[in-house]
């Protein structure tokens, strides 16, 4: 009995799209949190090295947000790169033919059809292009 250890092409495309977007989203949040952290340091005059509890808490929260968003962005980037690698493998199997699909981007709710996204996956010289 053979067990398939891979996802369907639809799942690979969904993973690619979802984690590409998540990586970008968390990357932007990390940059915003870093700006907030630097702004708070400047605002509370870090040179004096004397903060109130509220100021220290604000700076700490901004710093922890920056770290957390950075980690989430890295996780999403890693999964995105794995999905991209899988799509490259699919491209090799299909001799770099393009794939056109309606990919659900939200689950169906109360029996309504899920929202979908028209996607074309193309291959050019070993590169994956998702439109």
Kindly describe this structure.
The protein has 131 residues and is an alpha+beta fold. It has one domain (9-130). Helices cover 58% and strands 15% of the residues. It is built from two helices and three strands, in the order H-H-E-E-E. The chain has helices at residues 9-43, 53-93; strands at residues 99-104, 116-124, 127-130. Strands 1-2-3 form a three-stranded antiparallel sheet, with helices on one face. The longest helix has 41 residues, at 53-93. The protein is elongated. The two termini are 38 Å apart. Residues 1-6 have low confidence and may be disordered.
The count of DSSP E runs of length 2 or more, i.e. the number of strands, is: 3
Low-confidence stretches: 1-6
Number of domains: 1
Q: Order of strands across the widest beta sheet?
A: 1-2-3
**pLDDT averaged over residues:** 89
Helix-strand makeup class:
alpha+beta
Topology:
Blueprint: H1 9-43, H2 53-93, E1 99-104, E2 116-124, E3 127-130
Antiparallel strand pairs: 1-2, 2-3
Helix pairs in contact: 1-2
